[in-house]
Amino acid sequence: MIASLLIANRGEIACRIVRTARALGIRTIAVHSDADATALHVREADEAVHIGPSPARESYLVGDRILAAAKETGAAAIHPGYGFLSENADFAQAMIDAGLVWVGPSPASIRAMGLKDAAKQRMIDAGVPVTPGYLGEDQSPDRLAAEAARIGWPVLIKAVAGGGGKGMRRVDDAASFADMLASCRREAASSFGDDRVLIEKYVLSPRHIEVQVFGDTHGNVVHLFERDCSLQRRHQKVIEEAPAPGMDPATRAAVCDAAVRAAKAVDYVGAGTIEFIADASDGLRADRIWFMEMNTRLQVEHPVTEAITGQDLVEWQLRVASGEPLPCTQDQLSIHGHAIEARLYAEDPAKGFLPSIGTLEAFALGDGVRIDTGVEEGSVISPFYDPMIAKLIAHGETREEARETLADALDESVVWPVRTNAGFLVEALDHSAFVAGNVDTGLIAREGEALMPPTLPSEEALVAAAAALVGPVALGGFRLNAAPRRTGMFLLDGEPLAIDFADAQGADDATDGAVLISEGGQTWALDRYRATATAAGGAADGAILSPMPGRIIAVEVAAGDTVTKGQRLLVLEAMKMEHALVAPFDGMVAELNADTGGQVVEGVVLVRIEKGEA
Fold first, then answer.
1. Residue 600 pLDDT level (bands cut at 50, 70, 90)
2. Which of 5, 293, 332, 490 is the most buried if burial means most Cβ atoms within 10 Å?
3. How far is CA 85 from CA 6, 39, 180, 273, 354, in A?
4. What total number of domains does the chain contain?
């Protein structure tokens, strides 16, 4: 067994590798950039080495720095994780040439599957079914257009060296082919330095089916069954599961056998995934599932395979890299239950899924599931890396049991103030098509708004949070003798919001500070309404302005009083809402232009505070 292992990655996959390596008695070495100096994977490893500035291109993607870290720490082996340099054949070869054990396939296998056109031809030679298309050397626009017409519209133009959804264009007719081809080539050249393309038949009801394969140095290759990764947004996987819904034994045998043939065709060693595209317009059928590409590394979604087989795929990787045979033969592997994984991203669905950054002041994920993460409460989500912050994996005896468990765990999750897609994931898991197992890669794009989570908490959650802020309340409407109702003004995520609830009783029990509302996987912060320089009329020069026309219902200071920052000065009632105006800084009340019961118009100076020590 390998004695020491350098993990050339970060985040949740680095932490996941550390766990298995530690269980096997292997010393672990982490690498980190400036941004990750105090990251969880750094603290969990036995040793850590700084490899450069925060941007990945200056740290995690610099092979020479990783090799130097391996030499400095006396590492015996390198595990690349996924992403970064995991499928870089030159990096793998450099590690091998330096005398290190490479925990992955041979550089030759990586190269063989790295270019889509050459890989497809190799699959054809091995008897693996491939999507109808054109893989030829003639890249002239006229030839490509003619081949597209022969295949039949719609077609998919794909960059030969593409991946991650880049360098792909759907074309529905001959009239738009030339423009789409030019656009695809520009993106391919920019992203991969190679503008060559291939043409494929576009499948109208596509399912993304992939098979986990594993080979060793003794000539053994097995599969660990299939996964369904059809629920995608902009070609990026969102929810994955194993086994694939609707997969009958005969079709499973056909696609898994084809995957093993594909792996054997490139003398594959280690963990790999053979990806297939299925035309599911008439269910999953063996004659409508075609090879798409091979990922020559561990996949993000590997935990669902581990859950249904009871195997640790990272342990398999380390044992195979140490020269051991595969831990199981094919007939020793079987499927137990169903597993579903959701990728939790630091992104805001309400803002077009833009990445969200900041400190995780609250981070608590739901119970009953496996959680793979590289962050914890207090961690900083930086702008430098992939926004995935955790994976939640549920396993059950049935698919429905796994689905409900995962949805419940996401529903209970609390993440603040960083935004996540947890609410979106809950909506996706509860969508009728997903519940029925009737999904394809276009579901999210078609459904759009139907999968967007609510922008506000429920009325019940808001009232309960308001009650926690102002003290115990008798919730109006639930009994005949309810306390008189009133409308209070609060801040929900910094935005003013009126909440109607019963009069507070026992204000001494009020909460000091914001209250977090967690519902449906989303988290909001509700706070007391406070006037500041940018809200409710507070000004940097100490002038507190009336935010709107209204009536002064309370004046709590007098001219000459000393006040502290945040201290309530007066209360304005307007539009059946109360607005508390507070001091913007420590100082003295130099001017007071308000009397209890008086009416004011918008924009007048009610109080002026002069800076000074209270």
1. confident
2. 5
3. 13, 20, 30, 17, 25
4. 5
> Distance between CA 100 and CA 593 in Å, rounded?
78
Domain shared by 9 and 89, yes or no = yes
Q: Are residues 365 and 415 in the same domain?
A: yes
Q: What percent of the chain has pLDDT over 90?
A: 68
- Which of the 8 DSSP states describes residue 531? -
Based on the domain organization, do 429 and 353 belong to the same domain? yes
Q: Within a domain: residue 428?
A: yes
Supply the pLDDT for residue 542: 82
Mean pLDDT score of the chain: 89
Catalytic-residue membership of 22: no
Residue 99 lies in a domain: yes
Segment 312-339 mean pLDDT? 98
Q: Are residues 223 and 328 in the same domain?
A: yes
pLDDT tier at 475, thresholds 50, 70, 90? very low
Residue 226: CA count within 13 A, CB half-sphere:
29
Distance between CA atoms of residues 407 and 578, nearest Å: 38
pLDDT (tens digit per residue) in 226-257: 999 999 998 889 999 999 999 999 999 999 99
Domain that holds residue 250: 206-336
| Residues with Cβ within 8 Å of residue 146, at least 6 apart in sequence | none
Residue 466 inside a domain? The answer is no
Q: Which of 260, 254, 287, 253 is nearest to 274 (CA)?
A: 260
- Which is the catalytic residue, given 297, 319, 419, 528? 297
The answer to whether 281 and 205 have CB atoms below 8 angstroms apart is: yes
Residue 364 has pLDDT above 90, yes or no: yes
Pairing of strands 4-7, 27-33: parallel
> Is the pLDDT assigned to residue 85 strictly greater than 80?
yes
CATH label of the domain that carries residue 141:
3.30.1490.20
Alpha carbons 210 and 396: distance in angstroms, whole number: 21
**Are the CB atoms for 440 and 465 separated by under 8 Å?**
no
Residues 386 and 437 in one domain: yes
Contact in structure between 76 and 99 (CB atoms under 8 Å): no
Domain stop point among 168, 201, 234: 201
Residue-level pLDDT at 476: 40
One domain for residues 182 and 221 = no
DSSP states of 122-137: HHHHTT--B-SEE--S
241 and 186 in a common domain: no
Range of weakest confidence among 113-117, 119-123, 207-211, 606-610: 113-117
CATH number at residue 397: 3.30.470.20
494, part of any domain: no
CA atoms of 183 and 165, how far apart (whole Å): 14
Its pTM stands at: 0.78
3-state secondary structure of 49: strand
Grade residue 478 by pLDDT with cuts at 50, 70 and 90.
very low
| pLDDT given for residue 282 in this prediction | 86
Number of C-beta neighbours around residue 112 at 10 A:
20
